[in-house]
Every structure is written in C-alpha cells, then in structure tokens.
Amino acid sequence: MLSIRPGLPTLFRLPRYTSQSIYKPHRVLRRPIATTSTWKPEHTPKSILIVNKMRTQPVILAIDAFLEHVQRTYPGVRVFHEDRPDIPHGAEVWKPGPSAENIDLVVTLGGDGTILHASSLFSIGAVPPVLSFSMGTLGFLLPFHIDDFAKALETVFSGKATILNRMRLACTFYDKDLLKIGTDGDDWQVMNEIALHRGASPHLNTIDIFVDGQHLTEAVSDGLIVSTPTGSTAYSLSAGGPIVHPSLSALVLTPICPRSLSFRPLVFPSSSIITLRIGDRSRAPAGVSMDGRVSHILNPGESVNIQASPYPVPCINRSSIVDAEPPNTEGAGPGKEDDWVRDINNLLQYNATFRSKALLRHSRT
C-alpha cells in the first residue's frame, strides 16, 4: 500500500472515504448496442410523434404539409404531438410516461436541440426510431432537409431505412450518505453530455473521479464533462475534448479549465462506470446540466454515477435514401457514405486551411 509521510503537504494526501459503497458502483443490465443497421420493424409504423421547435411560420407550413402528406399517403397512421398550446390541427395529444400511447416513429423538425428534447421525452425504456429534418441553426444531428420528407417517409415505410444507434448515458444521483436521490426509474437519460460546473461561484470545484470504483484523480477545475460520442462535437469539443465517431460506444471525460495543465481528456469503454463526487474540501457546490438542462445542485459529499444506457437513440441515416448510382463516379456510392464524415467537413470544416475557407466564402458570394 502506498503511504504518505506526515510531513508532506495536504495537497498530496490521498483522499479518504469512510464508506466502501462508492468503490462498488451499481451496474445495470446492459444489452449489446449495435451501431449501424437496417431497421426491420415488425410492422410498418402505425403512429408518429411530431416534435418541433417553436412554431414559426416556416415550421407551421412544414408541419401542415407533412400532416397532409401522411393523411393522404398513409391514411391508417395516427399522428401525435406534445401537449402544447401550439398543437397542430389534425394531431392527437401525446404525454410521456409509463401509460403513454405507443409510438413507432418520432419525426423532429428543428435543430439539434429538438432531437435532444425528443430524446428526453423517452427517459424510461426504449426510444423509437427518429427521423430528423433540419429547420434550426445547428444541423450536426440532422441528416434530412425538410423538402425531402416524402422520400424519407417512403424509405421508412418500405423497410429500407438504416439507423445509427446513438449511445445515451444513464445518470444516477446520490447524497452524502450514498442514498439514491429520487426513486427507481428516475435515472436521467442523456444523449449529449452531463456537465458539472461551478456556476456563478468564483471558486473552483474539487471533484473526485472514480472509474469502476477505482479512484482516478482529484480534479480541481471549473468543472467536468462526461459525454457520449454524439456529444463529443458539442460542449466537450469546445472544452478541448476529442472528436469521437458516433458508431463507437465510449464515455469521454473532459475537464473544463483545469488547474493542472497535465489533466487531459480521457476516453473510456462503454462498460465503465464513472463516479463524480464533490470533494469534502470543495469550496463551491457543483451545478449539473444535462443536455443543456439544469437538473441538480451537488453539494460536498454528493455524487453522480454515469454509465452507458441500455436504450440508445436510433437515428435514421440520410444514406437510407438510395438513388441509382451514376456511372464513373469516385468515392462511396449512394447508401454507403458516412453521414458523419460529410458533417465534420461541411459543418465543422474539419482541418480546413485558410485558403480553403477563403475559397468557400468566395463560392457563397
């Protein structure tokens, strides 16, 4: 056992914990998470849930056109919408929960935040396949343009759609006595990331990090981010984290402005359980935000367990729309391209030089 001499400064002392429970994180039964596959439903979709951003005029027109097309082309399909004041005419009210109506397909109209909101509606159990249309400011998770909705629906209803299972995180909170905060079934399902941060406090957070019950380090920083591969291009990327392909199953740990320059981001396998415990010496509580939603305030001694959720978000790929392959073309053929490769080039302008950016601006004028 490593011993610390009494004369050493307190900064270098190993943290002590009176309870061993934190070294034995609770594991949930996880089923294998496939990556990209063809969606083979038992039957064609019989119910569709529309999730949309605030109803601006373009959104209103798009929803009206979508509903008219569904009612005309797929007359037996029921269309639902969240219980909001702006529910569109012709849609039934849908409320999340254990007694909610069964949904076979989720259709989102908006930006990336709309998909995150759709994911949060299914915090208990599996998420139906998600067909996403771009009508927002960000589009990293949005493979389809709204003008393509008829063709996209045809692909889904004909059983030719391919899906990418985007991993989610299951987060469970504990108080300083290691008693679960909330009841069973209250685990938060996170599609992008969970972030612990110092909020408005001028003091840094002190957070102990455990991986599968083993103490990794004591982090002194503005906060910590644990993200999915999908969330690796969000807050984690801005904090200096790596870009991870969404077909991988992994947990990404990224510090926010750490005091130590040697504290670098880490990537763990999806079988890992990460425990973040607010240190007893922390001068500030930690605010918790999950996919941009403020959820908890963790005080010293309180903790959160983070692990891979058994319920990913199945997102329908744009590569599902397969046209006849034109002759004498280079690169991947239709239906075989990687949406993610296209997106990091078009949206993130990955490794774009000053010259290529100048050419891009010139081409837009």
Describe the overall structure.
Keywords: ATP-binding, Kinase, NAD, NADP, Nucleotide-binding, Transferase. This is ATP-NAD kinase. Belongs to the NAD kinase family. GO terms for molecular function: ATP binding; NAD+ kinase activity. InterPro entries: ATP-NAD_kinase_N, ATP-NAD_kinase_PpnK-typ_C, NAD/diacylglycerol_kinase_sf, NADK. Helix content is 16%, strand content 30%. The radius of gyration is 23 Å and the shape is globular. The N and C termini lie far apart (67 Å). It is of the alpha+beta class. The model is unreliable at 1-21 and 324-336 (pLDDT under 50). The strands form three sheets. Strands 9, 10, 11, 12, 13, 14, 15, 16, 17, 18 and 19 form an eleven-stranded antiparallel sheet that branches. Strands 4-3-2-5-6-7 form a six-stranded parallel sheet, sandwiched between helices. It has two domains: 36-160, Rossmann fold (3-Layer(aba) Sandwich), CATH 3.40.50.10330; 169-310, Probable inorganic polyphosphate/atp-NAD kinase, domain 2 (Tumour Suppressor Smad4). It contains six helices and 20 strands.
Give the tags.
365 residues, 2 domains, eleven-stranded antiparallel sheet, globular, NAD+ kinase activity, NADP, nucleotide-binding, NADK, kinase
